[in-house]
């Protein structure tokens, strides 16, 4: 086994050594404890990334639904172009992630549930609308949220 000190002192070297160990079949020398820890961290990081994209997407969908009409009436020509661009970008990021990691699709509904409260708080912070403006639970299913042509009806 490679000494833990390499893992703690030079993570990149530890990774490269473990790649070599795996490629050469020297499995008995693997630092199994840290290898498992790193694989678990990778899985959490991928889920966390999905949740972060959903927070931004859901917040912008909420702003679209609950503030677009108000801003359009107030400013006349407001069309929410920056919101639309952010919605498009976040959908593209999420869909790309789901293509590269199809197993995350089974986590999507859970990720939406986890992301929604933070998305609501972001929408509250950015719009100054009261928390009570927004539904307690995500009002749209995953297929709608990720549908490129879906924009909620402004209220």
Write a concise synopsis of the structure shown.
The protein is an all-alpha fold and 155 residues long.
Describe this structure in words.
The protein is mostly helical. It has helices at 4-9, 11-23, 32-75, 81-100, 108-127, 142-146. The mean pLDDT is 92.
Strand composition percent = under 5%
Number of helix segments? 6
Main beta sheet: strand number and arrangement?
Answer: none
**Computed CA radius of gyration, to the nearest angstrom:** 21 Å
Range of helix content: 55-70%
Query: Could you report the average pLDDT, rounded to the nearest whole number?
Result: 92
Helix/sheet category: mainly alpha
Order of helices and strands: HHHHHH
Cα end-to-end separation: 62 Å
Work out the number of β strands.
0
Shape: elongated
Low-pLDDT regions: none
Key features?
single chain; 155 residues; mainly alpha; 6 helices; 70% helix
Would you spell out the secondary-structure blueprint of this structure?
Blueprint lengths: L3 H6 L1 H13 L8 H44 L5 H20 L7 H20 L14 H5 L9
Helix pairs in contact: 3-4, 3-5
């Amino acid at each position: 086994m490679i000494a833990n000190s390499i893992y703690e002192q030079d993570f990149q070297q530890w990774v490269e050594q473990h790649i070599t160990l795996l490629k050469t079949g020297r499995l008995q020398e693997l630092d199994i404890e840290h290898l498992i820890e790193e694989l678990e961290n990778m899985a959490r990081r991928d889920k966390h990334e999905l949740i972060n994209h959903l927070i931004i997407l859901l917040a912008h969908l909420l702003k679209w639904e609950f503030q677009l009409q108000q801003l359009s009436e107030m400013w006349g020509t407001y069309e929410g172009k920056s919101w639309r661009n952010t919605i498009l970008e976040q959908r593209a990021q999420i869909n790309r992630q789901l293509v590269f990691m199809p197993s995350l699709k089974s986590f999507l509904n859970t990720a939406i549930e986890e992301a929604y409260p933070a998305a609501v708080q972001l929408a509250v912070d950015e719009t100054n609308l009261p928390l009570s403006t927004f539904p307690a639970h995500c009002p749209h299913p995953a297929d709608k949220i990720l549908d490129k042509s879906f924009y909620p009806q402004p209220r």
